[in-house]
Amino acid sequence: MSTDNWANIAGGAGFVANFVLWNESGYFDRAAETKPLLHLWSLGIEEQFYIVFPLLLWLAWKRRVNLLTITVAIALVSFGLNISKYKSDAVADFHSPQTRFWELMIGAVLAYTQLGKQDIFAQFKRRLVHWLGRTVPAHRQETNGSKLRNAQSIVGAMLIVVGAAVVTKEDHFPGWWALLPTLGAVLVISAGAQAWINRWILSNRILVWFGLISFPLYLWHWVLLSFAHINEGGIPISQIRITAVLVSIVLAWLTYTLVEKPLRFGKHSNAKTSALLVLMAVVGGVGYSTYARSGLPFFVPKVIQEVAQSRYDAKQGYREGSCFLDTDQDYTTFNSCVTHVDARKKTLLLWGDSHAAHLYPGYQASFSDKFNIVQRTASGCPPITGMEIGSRPHCKKINDYVMDEISRLRPDKVVLAANWQEYDWKQIDVSIIQLKKIGIASIDVVGPVPQWKESLPRQMYLYFRSDPLHRVPDRMEFGLDHTFLEVDVAMSQFTTKLGVNYLSPAGLLCNEAGCITRFGETSDSLSAWDDAHLTSIGSIKLVSQFPRN
Known about the structure:
globular, alpha/beta, six-stranded parallel sheet, Rossmann fold, 24 helices, three-stranded antiparallel sheet, 7% strand, 9 strands, 3 domains
């Protein structure tokens, strides 16, 4: 298990799982499917709410501030922070308690009005019922408000279904989208037990049973699905996924029966609380201690553990947040990208997405004696002018800015690089034609780097697991996604016709025996740290073979 997962164990025990996952998040974060405790982020926010909100209510009560007023005010501030951040800092917006408390505050308002102050909206409801009565035939009018309750429950259910159907991982969430399930839940709950949806659907015995085991089911399901993904080295087949879900239901029922019910009900509540606190401290301590010691070394041989626990600081290596723009940043962030200019040197401008950014360490090591290296790279944004990418805001404007900068700087060499398989790479001719019109004589196009089916460290571990007698290979065919080789051949032919220099990482790093995996015996010698992004040493070894003219 990754050392990050041990950190998540410690974070979960300490009610700060959302902060731990927030710290891990970013463009280069490992896949969510490989984090068995990813779902603990929501529990962290809930736990922080249950600690902070009662204290705020107590202070409000002591100072004789209306509890509903303070609750609504906090909800509005929290929602405002959510809206202000959901585009500019999506990671913080998702994980921060300040931007998520409003969802829980709405539940608090609902509880306040339903349980303690039912008369607050009584007049509003009477007027709404009266209006409904006037809009239908007299013989269908009802005085008990059943139409309103039914309408509430149906609209609420529709909002929840629509939210689940239309929101994708490409959308900024929570943002405005979170209103759909939140308000939907409010409408369904406030409709009461006699509303049609609640009476005939949600009161079904099977759904009620799933409701009873819902919390342990939430805890179990993702763990099993994640470990299935890790064990299979990718998305598991449908039979495995179905089995994982069925097993999680059984485990949830056992947890509810043998753990939750005995702890929640019965005698010795003080002793149970003390025991749980001690157990929580032990679990948190073991998690943090194991994380600090980089895992449990006795599970696998040392050399495999070196590979499996390899870590690379891509943020620093690629200069993320200044010279390499994150997904939500626009071209103005380039103002913080520092380039040390020596008037005696030529200038090289590196342009592209993360697959251009990972070349920067190599160019800095091998070319900086002759060139000033100007880095203009942005995640998910290839160096193709005019290209609009729905999942990547600002890309067209970023490329327009870079092209304008090239016109102004007139660099001696421009290097174009990207994860070409992800785009319509033939549109690169537009950028090349513009560069030639500006007067750029030396244009290098760097082709695709070796692509692995999953992260290279993971593929090396799977290779070892398939036969423990295997040595850790320094060149490997196992786990390669050969699509990059087809793109490499096609790009070489295409760019040659355009009269630019084509540089082939595939030709430099791969042969009939496979592609280079490492340049030494330690974890920091790997050529790539995920499925395709180069490490610093991988970048240096590759770029050192590029022509320096």
